[in-house]
Amino acid sequence: MFTYNIFSENSAPSSLYRFRYAIYVEEMGRRQKYACAENRTIRDPLDAKGHQGVVTRDDAIVGCIRMNLLKDGPIGDYFDFYDLSALSPTELARASICTRLMIEPSLRRTSVSIDLVKFAYEFGLMNGIDTCFIDCNSHLERFFGRFGWRSLYRRTHEEYGLVDVMRLDLRDLSHLAAVGSPFLEIAARCVSSGNAAALACAE
Predict the structure, then answer these.
(1) Which residues partner with 5 through β-bridges?
(2) What's the domain count of the chain?
(3) Does residue 191 register a pLDDT over 90?
(4) Contacts of 140 (CB under 8 A, 6+ apart)
(5) Considering the chain, what is the average pLDDT of its residues?
(6) For a tag site, which of 6, 68, 105, 181 has the least CB within 10 Å?
(7) For residue 96, which of 129, 51, 123, 62 has the smallest C-alpha distance?
(8) What CA–CA distance (Å, rounded) separates 42 from 35?
């Protein structure tokens, strides 16, 4: 059985940061600016205000994703990397970014990755988020596109090389329906006052 939880304000277990190191450094061999070889962890400045979506099985972490809401504080270099200066103050207050998505290798072709992204989507809706920005390498563009993210442009990330920067409009129900997004299951549990912009998750 899998359990999904949110940890905020530095409340995540230390095993989360070891899980990141195991995936990114030990498995993938990625160069990571904030990797600590001594402790075998990856922890960066965005974790302080980040909301960590964590999947566990038998108390062991098997997946994670981090969500940073711009209304909670600065997002460092990602602000310019995603060209967020183009957003109005109102749009910025309802925007987020998702990073650090990773799944245990044996579960990558299972529903766990889909359920984790859906978990993050519902968290965004419940916290008044309209847009979510991500970046990914090209082989994952199709995966995120099926959820409803749209590609904006390609840019070189200092740690991950050439990436696709993508934007999701969480409340664009017509687009979610057009791509057959798994998010529609969540939208069905939500209520609207007649327009998508007023969408809010029901208690």
Answers:
(1) 54
(2) 1
(3) no
(4) none
(5) 92
(6) 105
(7) 129
(8) 4
Task: Select from 43, 50, 58 the least CA-distant residue to 7.
Answer: 50
Determine the average pLDDT of the residues in 1-30. Answer: 95
Distance (Å) of CA 50 to CA 39, 69, 71: 21, 8, 11
- The C-alpha atoms of residue 203 and residue 167 are separated, in whole angstroms, by 27
CA distance 151 to 102: 20
Question: Residue 29, Cβ neighbours under 10 Å: how many?
Answer: 7
Q: What six digits make up the tokens of 107?
A: 């579960």
Residue 109: which CATH number? Answer: 3.40.630.30
- Strand, helix or coil at 131? strand
Distance CA 34, CA 40 (A): 11
Domain range for 177: 2-201
**Burial classification of residue 60, based on how many CB atoms lie within 10 Å of its CB (0-12 exposed, 13-18 middle, 19 or more buried):** exposed
Q: What is the per-residue pLDDT for 122?
A: 94
